[in-house]
Amino acid sequence: MSLVLLQQQVMAETPYLPEADVKVMTDQLTEGEREEVLGFLSENPVHTVVMAGFIRDNGLCSEHNRGTFWGCRNSEGRLEGVALIGHVTLVEARTRRAAREFALAAQASARKHMILGERGMVEAFWTFYADEGQPMRRACRERLFGLRRAVEITREVGGLRPATRADIDLIAPAHAAMAEAESGVNPLNTDPEGFIARCLRRIEAGRVWVVIENGRLLFKADVQADTPDVIYLEGVWVAPSERNTGFGRRCLTQLCRDLLARTKAVCLLANDENERAHAFYRMCGFKCEGVFDTIFLRRD
Known about the structure:
Elements: H1 3-8, E1 24-28, H2 34-41, H3 49-58, E2 67-74, E3 79-86, E4 88-93, H4 96-107, E5 114-118, H5 119-129, E6 136-147, E7 161-162, H6 168-183, H7 187-190, H8 192-204, E8 208-213, E9 216-226, E10 230-238, H9 247-259, E11 265-271, H10 275-283, E12 287-297
Parallel strand pairs: 4-5, 10-11
Antiparallel strand pairs: 1-2, 2-3, 3-4, 5-12, 6-11, 6-12, 7-8, 8-9, 9-10
Helix pairs in contact: 4-5
């Protein structure tokens, strides 16, 4: 998607609150505000699951977030928006002025990799960010798929299990290849040490699920964010030899059944142009629940 097309769509369908009160306060958030922020995000749990997951895993102030959490408040001190500004920039802005405030804060933050969020939110943010921020390198539209009721399983996959450190040499290349296909950048080339460390941290947290047979990775899925309301999956991968056989569907439906025993919904994103992925997720019981935009930024 071109910058011109993106800007033409700005604010066309975004439900922002009235803005009679023009005074807002925007500051970095602190650990003492954790429960208030989680409460704010829980009002829109599917669209904010990634931010909520970072906070639950790492707190509001942690190097593992790879960025800084910001809050925008009105004159009465109520939150109008929360944003994570950093390597991945995520925005939940309930007003246009909150989107503007976060965009200005992001302009002062160096070396961001991408901006991700609900379509209208990203469009509003980009309006204020583009002139003085990092230029766009690539943009894509994605569909948000959600699953709220487990699909009946007729035959279980016996080898589906949490990954271990010993599996890293199989997992990392598959995950890196998926990242490259989406962003155009392979993290094993640009930041191999950091990427492997992040993969291992997720594995050690029990967040990566695999099927490995005879030294071959056949299926992989990562729990990127885990909250009581929503679990967000990424990196769902099926070996080419197992595609179109029903194996991947069995793996994902079995994993989602187990996850739905402790959360209300499972969601994931799929590129808007990947119709095969859309069909696969629908066969697993997922339904499209929204549209997100991703903007990858130039860092040179």
